[in-house]
Structures are given as C-alpha cells and as structure tokens.
C-alpha cells in the first residue's frame, strides 16, 4: 500500500494560483488517532490562496510540495490505531487545515490534515470539526458548508440580532455571506448587503437582503445595530465601525484577529470568529434545510488548477467546489 500514488492539487513553492500543478504523490496513511478518507468533494478558500502566496509571512512557513484544501466530504477508507468514532465506509465531512498550520491553532484537538484537494487525505479523528455526513446532503453541498456553515452559525450567535434590528453585511456575495443571509432573514433582521455586480445584487436580494449597496464605504448606512465584516482586513475596519450605532456589534471573520483599538471606536462591541468546530451542529442544520450553500461552479480534480485561478481572479458568487466526478465547469 505504501507505493500507491494519488492526484493532488499542489504548490511546489510560493507563488500564484497559475503556478499550481496536479501532481502524483504517495497516498497518505493514518497514524494513531487518524482516519484516511477518499475525497468526494473539496473546496477552495481564501486560506488556500493566502498560504501559497506567502501572505501569512513568518507566521506560516509551508513545506513543499504543499497540498491545498481545508474542507471536504468523503468516505472513510482506513482507520489508525485507537480510532473508535469512525469505521471504514462511514460518510464524513468537515474542515481541517493542512498540517503546516499546526502552530496557528489552539488546543490539543486541532483539526489538521494532509490537504483535502487530493484523492485521499488523512485527518485527526478526535476533532469536533469532523462529523458524519447526513444522507440527504450530497457531498458537494456538505463540503461547501463545512466552513461557511460553521462560520454562519457562529456569526448568528455573536451578532445576537433581534427581529427588526438592522445589519450591514460587507462581502455578502461570498461563501459565508450567501450562507448567512437566509439565517439573518429568518431572524427578522433588516439587511443591507454589499455587491459589486448586478448578478451579485440579484443573488443577495434573492437570499433575503432588503437593500443592496456597492463596496464604497461612503455608501454604508449609518446607525445600524450590527456589521458583519466578511472580507476586510483590520485597516478597513474603521470604515465598517462608523456604520454602527453606539453599543452596536461588529463581527469579523478575517484573520488575523483585529483589536478594539483598530476600530477607532470604543463604544461598540467587537467579535472575532475563526471557528474550527461544531460540525455536528452544521450537519443537523444542513439536514433540516436551515443551512444551504450557494455553489457557483464545480470542477473535476483534473481541472483544479483552473478552479483555483477562477476562484482567485473571478470573484465567484458562492463556493467553488472540486469533485471526484466530471464537474460542471
């Protein structure tokens, strides 16, 4: 078994998505407390692109060849010593960062993998960031919800919106935005969402937005109860904070964690979310239809380089998914 190879989306050094390759690598096998999964679907995320371009700087040094991918759905094909939570044949999904990220994650149950944009990957079995895939949720949708679903539910907890309260969603057409908008609408919030194109505006309206504006901060509404920052780094947060009423809540999901001093205001709440757990909750919400991803396009693994380029350059409306099948690109 050790001489088997697999296809994977690989960075051979720091660079741009156009420099990625589909490479043959040894199939990884699980050690103690780990499971091997045959990947049915995986996705691309901002973390993938930031990692391969070196945007994390000295905080993250990659070892090459580096396999991308941190959310997935697939079938357990091998278990390591001591694993009792999963058996061969179990359908699972979840999120896990490649092992190079180990130093950035707190806790002993960090969710790490060998990289999910591959035919096989190895995951830590004892993490809440993995769960069984509900039978009524296809692998593509499960993979697309692993991060966006967890984040959307955590956003709703942090924002604590009451019916009639107002919220500005900055970056509403991305994966998290398109997942959280229906939750906000169901909570009875008055939603203002940003979108850069007519297609984006039509999508966010369909998902529950009451008003749609462009990305110019001059057009942000004033006096809203909550702002969800889904795209901007800390240097842009003062623009977002100015939209809040005194005592309002700003929820940001963009790493690194911002500080209250960076907001330029001391009369609002700041919440930061970088969630790597709660997959059982996502599974339950997906099974009932409470969570449903917007998939912009899917590609087969053989075309994963093009998927990464399109994801980075094309600003897709929703998730880009890479599958073991023929795709829909």
Q: Which architecture name of the largest domain does CATH use? A: Alpha-Beta Complex
Order of helices and strands: EEEHEEEEEEEHEHEHEEHEEHEHE
The CATH class designation of the largest domain is Alpha Beta
* Named CATH topology of the largest domain: Quinone Oxidoreductase, Chain A, domain 1
List the uncertain runs: none
Instruction: Please state the CA-atom Rg, rounded to the nearest Å.
Output: 19 Å
Overall pLDDT: 94
Number of helices: 7
The percent range for strand residues is 25-35%
Structural class: alpha/beta
Shape: globular
| Spatial separation of the terminal alpha carbons | 33 Å
CATH homology-level superfamily of the largest domain = Medium-chain alcohol dehydrogenases, catalytic domain
The main β sheet shows up as: 7 strands, mixed
How many individual β-strands?
18
- How many domains? 2
Oligomer class: single chain
Give the helix/strand layout.
Elements: E1 5-11, E2 21-26, E3 34-43, H1 46-52, E4 66-67, E5 71-79, E6 91-95, E7 97-98, E8 112-113, E9 120-124, E10 130-132, H2 139-159, E11 166-170, H3 175-186, E12 190-194, H4 198-206, E13 211-213, E14 224-229, H5 237-241, E15 244-252, E16 269-272, H6 279-288, E17 295-300, H7 304-314, E18 319-323
Parallel strand pairs: 7-8, 11-12, 11-14, 12-13, 14-15, 15-16, 17-18
Antiparallel strand pairs: 1-2, 1-4, 3-5, 3-9, 3-18, 5-6, 6-10
Helix pairs in contact: 2-3, 2-6
């Amino acid at each position: 078994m050790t001489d088997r190879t697999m296809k994977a989306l690989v960075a051979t050094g720091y660079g741009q998505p156009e420099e990625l390759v589909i490479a043959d690598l040894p199939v990884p096998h699980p050690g103690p407390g780990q499971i091997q999964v045959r990947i049915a679907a995986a996705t691309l995320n901002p973390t993938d692109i930031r990692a391969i371009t070196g945007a994390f700087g000295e905080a993250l040094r990659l070892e090459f060849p580096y396999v991308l991918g941190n959310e997935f759905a697939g079938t357990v094909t091998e278990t390591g010593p001591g694993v009792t939570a999963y058996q061969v044949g179990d359908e699972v999904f979840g999120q896990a960062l490649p092992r190079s990220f180990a130093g950035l994650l707190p806790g002993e149950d960090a969710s790490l993998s060998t990289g999910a944009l591959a035919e096989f990957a190895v995951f830590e079995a004892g993490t809440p960031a993995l769960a069984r895939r509900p039978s009524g949720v296809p692998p593509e949708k499960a993979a697309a919800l692993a991060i966006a679903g967890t984040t959307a539910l955590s956003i709703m907890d942090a924002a604590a919106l009451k019916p009639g309260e107002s919220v500005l969603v900055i970056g509403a057409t991305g994966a998290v935005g398109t997942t959280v908008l229906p939750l906000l609408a169901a909570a009875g919030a008055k939603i203002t969402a940003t979108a850069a194109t007519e297609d984006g505006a039509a999508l966010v309206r369909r998902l529950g937005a009451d008003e749609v504006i462009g990305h110019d901060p001059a057009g942000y509404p004033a006096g809203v109860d909550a702002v969800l920052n889904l795209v901007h780094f800390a240097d842009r947060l003062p623009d977002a904070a100015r939209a809040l009423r005194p005592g309002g809540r700003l929820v940001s999901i963009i790493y690194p964690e911002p500080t209250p001093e960076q907001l330029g205001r001391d009369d609002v709440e700041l919440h930061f979310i970088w969630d790597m757990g709660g997959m059982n909750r996502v599974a339950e919400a997906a099974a009932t239809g409470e969570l449903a991803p917007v998939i912009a396009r899917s590609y087969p693994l053989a075309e994963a380089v093009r998927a990464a380029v399109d994801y980075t350059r094309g600003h897709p409306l929703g998730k880009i998914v890479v599958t073991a099948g023929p795709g829909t690109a």
